[in-house]
Amino acid sequence: MDDRFNTIAGWVLFAGIVALGSSIVAGEYFHSERPEKMGYPIAGVEQEGAGTAAAEQPIEVYLAKADPAAGQQIFNKCMACHNADKGGANQLGPNLWGVIGEPIGQGRGFAFSDALGKKGGAWAWDNLSQWLTSPRNFAPGTKMTFAGLSNPQDRANVIAFLNAHSDAPKPLPAAPAPAAAAAKPGEGGKEAAATGNKAAPAPAATK
Length: 207
What we know:
Order of helices and strands: HHHHHHHH
Number of helices: 8
Distance between the termini: 119 Å
Strand content: under 5%
Shape: elongated
Helix content: 25-40%
């Protein structure tokens, strides 16, 4: 009986040793390094840090090529709260006929929020673009619930549409001239030489 038990125990121990050895060999053979970046890229989805958005230009750049008709299509989404008709009634938001050049958050027989009423100044190209980008950032505490337009050309088109809805539409601004190019490497030394930054003459040899 003892011999049979010892034989079985021996085979079990042998099988365990074989299994352990096989696991070690397989682990060494199929060993792979940890990937530098975990996960798998998804087609069509830009990874974080893979690129940067182009810097937005001044609104005048987009106004120079603005399309009031395209702006009307966007403004149609706003008509639940606003209209831009001459003599039109206020709705949830004020009537916007002739709004450009008007005081911000004042008059029109509308109860503006204090946040907007205290901004001061008049509606112009730049601040109207800021307002349309994010009303809540432009005037924290405003009653305006519109999230904003992130596309600058869409904002320019809407501004052009509103500008056209006025007794005296203003000429749309021309695109500003591009900034002067930075000096090329090496030109600084040439400029210094041209302005008289010459090396001091060597002292005369003494006798």
